[in-house]
Amino acid sequence: MDAASRVEELRRLVEHHTERYYLLDDPEISDAEFDGLVRELRALEDAHPELRTEESPTQKVGGRASTAFAEVRHRVPMMSLDNAFSFDELVAWGKRMERYIGVGGEPQTGSGHVDYVCELKIDGIACSLLYEGGRYVRGATRGNGVVGEDVTENVRTISVIPERLEGDAPEVLEVRGEVYMPVSAFEELNQRQGEAGLRLFANPRNSGAGSLRQKDPKITASRDLRFWAYQLGEGPRFRRHSETLDYLKAAGLPVNPNVRTVGSLDEVFAYCENWLKHRHDLDYEIDGVVVKVDDLAQREELGSTSKSPRWAIAYKFPPEEATTVLKDIMVSIGRTGKATPFAQLEPVKVSGSTVQLATLHNQDQVRVKDVRPGDTVTVRKAGDVIPEVVAPVLSKRREGLPEWSFPKECPVCHGPLIRIEGESDTFCVNVDCPAQRDGRIIHFASRGAMDIEGLGEKRVSQLTTAGLLSDPGDIYYLTYEALMGLEGFAGISARNLLDAIEASKTRPLPSLLVGLSIRHLGGRGAEVLADAFGSLDRILEASEEEMAVTPGVGPVIAKSVCEFFALDRNRQVIDKLRGAGVNFAGVERSTLPPTLAGKSVVVTGTLESMSRDRAVEAVKARGGSSPGSVSKKTAYLVAGAEPGQAKVTKAEECGVPVIDEAAFLHLLETGEVP
Length: 674
Known about the structure:
This protein is α+β, with helices and mostly antiparallel strands. The strands form six sheets. Strands 14, 15, 16, 17, 18, 19 and 20 form a seven-stranded antiparallel beta sheet that branches. Strands 2-13-12-5-11 form a five-stranded mixed beta sheet. A four-stranded antiparallel beta sheet has the order 7-6-9-10. Strand 6 and strand 7 form a beta hairpin. Helix 1 (about 5-25) runs antiparallel to helix 2, helix 12 crosses helix 13 (about 455-465) and helix 16 (about 510-515) packs across helix 17. Residues about 105-110 have low confidence and may be disordered.
């Protein structure tokens, strides 16, 4: 295909997908795939300038406004940003800024210093708010940058947007920002949709955009939308953008707390790297970082193209969503017998890795999402989270594609699959199913339980196949000679595994309880049981009634624990563990000084001297508490290597002292920080 033909094809594709994204809130491809089409089109137009026209999508902003709303002509155009897809591209942009910034009003190559403002790129919908005399009068979407949609009454329902500004307000103030739906609100909305048998939303961005553009503001009001202000369209003049943000905050408008002003590209890089690692610490989705020149006089000097300001750029994170073909839906069997459907996919690159399998959670989720083998589907992989199929692309479904039905027998042992009344999960009821056996042993050895390094999925499968393991108790009777007879074991690896097994015998009682795979008993419930009864033997002797009245346990956990220990097969495992010398005793808190009695200590990041779990145990053993989040009641935040930035920011906002590992160890010993 020649360049002219490919340019025309790309323009048609970009226009089509722009409409699906901006107008219909129903995209057919991922953001990354759309960005790829635009980049290819722009590259061809750069190589063949004679093919570039004013009507090309590369010269336009966003999409056209919907005819369902009245049009709003923006008093100042709402421009889009150019994108950088690698840090090299971001650095090249920054070097251009520094090269062309004038000193004393005259451009002098290489001599300009630039301060940058780094802001999180919120994955929402751009919106303009107009205030007259300090009172909110209009809300509008960006639309094509010149004409947007009038969503005034819908915006009025967003609780964080003030009806009246604080302080002395100018005659006219136009604020630009992003409307978004928090991740927690999105999950709650999808839960309500699923319970009502309605189709699930694909992601917070689409559900937020759809909620903002409802014809009935009552529907918008029922959705938990939020807003971050990030720019002035019209209003008072300042010297720096950072001063503008301070002004907006003082006026009562929400400004993101993670904005940073930096003086070098190295600091820009550090900011981007930090949020790429910690993007999922937030309760809202971000897909990159926006970098802006701080000095407004320098912005004037740099100017804009027809579409984008030269003084700002969006650094896009690697994509976490992609579209691919769902080849088949299979079912896996877990340690409790739970049958979980999963998708076999045409391989697709998502979040830096190739994805071929993705979870579908349960039978009801498959039904509500209505995904079928043969569908084109959206796949999401957020950081280390297991990839999941989000939704089908219905516009690409071929006619007559049959629905998928949940199987009636286990794919491993061929026993019956039973759905428990009142629950969404289906189970293989054969406790001798090989998949359940291996799953129980793998879980027992996992970090959150007995933490036996080297005993992962492949190794457990090898040992069960060889007949050396049939339950978790057998782990403690493995011998050096038996291991050396297996492929892949040498003297060092065999000794390392046996040492890890020996070390696990001293793990605290809550870890052992978690490792036993008792249904409904999680980490918190295990801690409560261990604290209340003091030893595994006392738990074994306790009645269901005694457990049920224990605060934090309740009847469901009590019934499940008693039923578990009533089975002879489970008692046999306990006997093996007892014979091997595994710790059955709870922590004797009286043996440790209560240096942290009544204090809340939160731990984030990686510590050198102990794991995070051990650090939490150490706090609790000294009478303190260690919740997962920071609040005004937190006494200290312990920050190890690569701490969660959201926790550090929250601690700073609440005035909570942030201490390092050395200070933490001193705190454990004395109850004070040095």
